[in-house]
Amino acid sequence: MATCSWWAWRRKARITMLEPYLAAVPYFGWDVLRDLQELFRYAFMQHAFEAGTMVALSAGVIGYFVVLRGLSFAAHALSHIGFAGATGAVLVGAGPLVGLLTFTMAAGGVMGALGQRLRGRDVTIGLVMAWSLGLGVLFTRLYQGSANLAIGILFGQIFGITTQEVAVTFIAGALTVLALVVIYRPLLFATLDEEVAEAKGVPVRGLAIIFMVILAVAVSEAVQVVGVLLIFALIVAPAAIADRFTTRPSRGVLLSAVLAVLFTWAGLTIAYYLPYPVGFFITTIAFWSYVLARVLSAVVARRATGRVRPWREEQVRHSP
Questions:
Q1: Residue 201: is it exposed, middle or buried by C-beta count within 10 angstroms (0-12/13-18/19+)?
Q2: What is the CATH number that goes with domain 6-318?
Q3: Which of 126, 139, 127 lies closest to 94 in space, CA to CA?
Q4: Alpha-carbon torsion 82, 85, 91, 97, what sign?
Q5: pLDDT mean across residues, the chain
Q6: Could you read off the pLDDT of 48-104 as tens digits, one per residue?
Q7: pTM for the whole structure
């Protein structure tokens, strides 16, 4: 069992294990099979990859719609509201995931009911975020247990996830993806042109509420991996990258999900070998991937413009 990485497990093991064994470090070399065996040697790494993969899949899929609908800030606000719910639940003796889901789903439903009125209310959302963090700090102060709980909620603690939590995460993630598959077409229609969709009889307001509730579940899952403060890494970054390279929604959703999984796998792998938080590695990989995507998309667009311009000039020259 470990709470942050192999190195943390090793520090705890000093109490009960022999020093010669502790002198060993995780194996890493050119033998891919042996590297994989070492990576999945301990149960905490197996649980981390299982939960992380499911969370990344659901976050990547729903994140594409978050970017399309312009709800990135609202998604970030849900994570802060969830922090207050998680700490409050622990204060009354319940599990943090229960509080996360309760607060984020309630807030998501309200945001969904507001619909278009939610846009442009950055000041209101920002104040609610700040108040929620302050409320979470109060609950943490009133809680007489370890402060590591609050740190885990803020920055993620996937290396400490249990078998039962993996099962809950898998079920929640599967339901999230399934719900998005069911409402995919009408949700896409309402996202691209809300007025036309409403005129065609699509229940735009109901879809918005359902979507925000699904987003609340996805946010609650992702908090276990990257924490409240780093939620953008899994929900927004992969989708923002995908949006720069494809205009087809189906391909965008697929690319966003793949990128989220790759970011998570890479972060977990590096964190196993280095004594630093996994959230740092996931967010760093996501950030620099987004920077690279912006640069590449700008270069591709410039080259495409350079190729098209002579043809357009020639067409204008010969036009009547």
A1: exposed
A2: 1.10.3470.10
A3: 139
A4: negative
A5: 77
A6: 898 889 888 988 999 999 888 888 877 778 878 888 888 888 888 777 777 888 888
A7: 0.76
Give the integer Cα–Cα distance in Å for 86 and 79: 10
Nearest CA-CA partner of 215 in 96, 54, 131, 106? 106
The DSSP-derived string for the chain is --SS-HHHHHHHHTTTS-HHHHT-----SS-HHHHHHHHTSSHHHHHHHHHHHHHHHHHHHHHHHHHHTT-HHHHHHHHHHHHHHHHHHHHTTS-HHHHHHHHHHHHHHHHHHHGGGGTT-HHHHHHHHHHHHHHHHHHHHH--S-THHHHHHHH--GGG--HHHHHHHHHHHHHHHHHHHHTHHHHHHHHH-HHHHHHTT--HHHHHHHHHHHHHHHHHHHHHHH-STTTHHHHTHHHHHHHHH---HHHHHHHHHHHHHHHHHHHHHHHHHSSS-HHHHHHHHHHHHHHHHHHHHHHHHHHHHHHHHHHHHHHHHH--
Residue type, 18: L
| Spacing of C-alpha 233 from chain mean position | 6
Longest pairwise C-alpha distance within the chain: 89
User: In the structure encoding, which two tokens stand for residue 318, read together?
Assistant: 């010969």
28: Cα within 13 Å, side-chain hemisphere? 9
Residue-range domain boundaries for the chain: 6-318
Candidates 262, 264, 223, 310; CA nearest to 52 is 264
The first and second tokens of residue 66, run together, are 């978050």
